[in-house]
Design brief:
40% strand; Alpha-Beta Plaits; 101 residues
């Protein structure tokens, strides 16, 4: 299967991204109670909780990333990903294969 990428955005509203490193694991959880976006996917890390959201705007999606809207119906209620790059404008991750429906 071709790799599926996603961007973590909004990290500055939580813990920032300076602590994130290549290979770290993140959890994706559909945020079914989000009042602003019915396809919101929260990104969490063990011990910290929510660290951001999967980007869902053409302004925040990096490179070949899927937006939250494209990912929402393709993943289970919870999924996992691996951090590939930590950039100034977002964190690029790869969705782990067993996360698909």
């Amino acid at each position: 299967m071709k790799p599926v990428y996603f961007t973590i955005t909004g990290t500055n509203h939580y813990y920032g991204s300076r602590f994130m490193k290549l290979g770290m694991q993140v959890r994706l959880v559909k945020d079914i109670h989000n009042e602003f976006d019915n396809e919101a996917i929260a990104v969490k890390m063990d011990g910290l909780g929510k660290i951001g959201y999967v980007a869902n705007s053409s302004y925040t999606v990096l490179g070949e990333s899927y937006s939250a809207g494209r990912l929402y119906d393709k993943i289970n209620k919870k999924a996992t990903g691996t951090i590939l790059y930590v950039l100034d404008n977002g964190v690029l991750c790869r969705l782990n294969e067993f996360s698909f429906k």
